[in-house]
Amino acid sequence: MAKLLLGKEVNASINEEIKAKVEKLKAQDITPTLGIIRIGEREDDIAYEKSAAKRCETLGVAYEKFLLPADVKEEEVLKTISQVNKNDKIHGVLLFRPLPKHLNEDRIVNALAVEKDVDGITDLSMAGVFMGKDMGYAPCTPSACMKVLEHYGIDCTGKKVVVIGRSQVVGKPAAMMLLKKNATVTVCHTRTVDMPSVVKEADIVVVAAGKAGVIDGSYLREGQIVIDVGINVNEEGKLCGDVNFEEAEKIVDAITPVPRGVGGVTTSILLEHVVDAAIAQNR
Ligand code: NAD
């Protein structure tokens, strides 16, 4: 049976670091604060907002919500972002996306000050990831994948890593971050031919396809490490990953389960970024 790579074990060590940094900031009268901008009432946004708020409370990070109606005018959103940019009590911003269709997401996202872009959504943050430069913050989900690997002492140097998915939020930045760690990276997507044989070649497989159970046992082999980024709801209404867990755990060496894997680490990374942003902005 595969070893389980558990988010809570990774979080325990990140949380210790966050708490120590928060204590230092509070001794200087600084409370690291996350600004949460939510447009509309999407259920998944609200669920993530609640879990982020709970985690903030546990770690001594404050948060302030900016709630806008789903039919909000673009100028109103840009005004909110400009206010948050200027507010030196807010160190980082979480803006829920996708935005309602009538809004220009590109314009809105890139109005955010890069030093407050703790979720890594602006073009400048992304450029930082691709150029290996310290600009803004790397997106939280691929950062969480890297943190899981690091926590469990899995060295990427020289390893063959296959990333499944090429989205802007997960797949592409994950590939760049793995490359930075000296992995030999292959990115698979919907047009990849003979994906099972490509995936079988990998030492580490990072799956971010957004389709429940799409990677089953026929893609996998003994000795592999599988990081399942997917968060889906199956036919029975239960949370599940992009990997068929029952099949995979019998084959591979180690795997992140869903839930209890990468998901919770993503929130920890977000808060780590907020605290780091508070430190950077008060230097
Ligand atoms: P997306 O839909 O934007 O991108 C999916 C990518 O996978 C695309 O590039 C597509 O080409 C590829 N793909 C889809 N089906 C495929 C298939 N059958 N074979 C090969 N490639 C395929 O999704 P995303 O935003 O990148 O998210 C991916 C998954 O990660 C989703 O399940 C999402 O819920 C989850 N997610 C998790 C977290 C977290 O914190 N753990 C955060 C963000 C997203």
TrEMBL record:
Q: In which pathway does it act?
A: One-carbon metabolism; tetrahydrofolate interconversion
**Domain Tetrahydrofolate dehydrogenase/cyclohydrolase NAD(P)-binding positions:** 139-280
Q: For NADP(+), which residues are the binding ones?
A: 165-167, 231
Q: Which InterPro entries match?
A: Aminoacid_DH-like_N_sf, NAD(P)-bd_dom_sf, THF_DH/CycHdrlase, THF_DH/CycHdrlase_cat_dom, THF_DH/CycHdrlase_NAD-bd_dom
Q: What is its EC number?
A: 1.5.1.5, 3.5.4.9
Q: Which keywords annotate this record?
A: Amino-acid biosynthesis, Histidine biosynthesis, Hydrolase, Methionine biosynthesis, Multifunctional enzyme, NADP, One-carbon metabolism, Oxidoreductase, Purine biosynthesis
**CDD domains from the entry?**
NAD_bind_m-THF_DH_Cyclohyd
Domain Tetrahydrofolate dehydrogenase/cyclohydrolase catalytic, first and last residues per copy = 5-119
The record's Pfam families line, in alphabetical order, gives: THF_DHG_CYH (PF00763), THF_DHG_CYH_C (PF02882)
The record's annotation in SUPFAM superfamilies points to: Aminoacid dehydrogenase-like, N-terminal domain (SSF53223), NAD(P)-binding Rossmann-fold domains (SSF51735)
Q: Which reaction does it catalyse?
A: (6R)-5,10-methenyltetrahydrofolate + H2O = (6R)-10-formyltetrahydrofolate + H(+); (6R)-5,10-methylene-5,6,7,8-tetrahydrofolate + NADP(+) = (6R)-5,10-methenyltetrahydrofolate + NADPH
Q: How does it assemble?
A: Homodimer.
Question: PANTHER family attached here?
Answer: C-1-TETRAHYDROFOLATE SYNTHASE, CYTOPLASMIC, C-1-TETRAHYDROFOLATE SYNTHASE, CYTOPLASMIC-RELATED
Q: Which family does it belong to?
A: Belongs to the tetrahydrofolate dehydrogenase/cyclohydrolase family.
Which purpose does this protein serve, as stated in its record? Catalyzes the oxidation of 5,10-methylenetetrahydrofolate to 5,10-methenyltetrahydrofolate and then the hydrolysis of 5,10-methenyltetrahydrofolate to 10-formyltetrahydrofolate.
In its UniProt entry, what is this protein called? Bifunctional protein FolD
Record the organism: Dorea amylophila
**Lineage of the species this protein comes from:** Bacteria, Bacillati, Bacillota, Clostridia, Lachnospirales
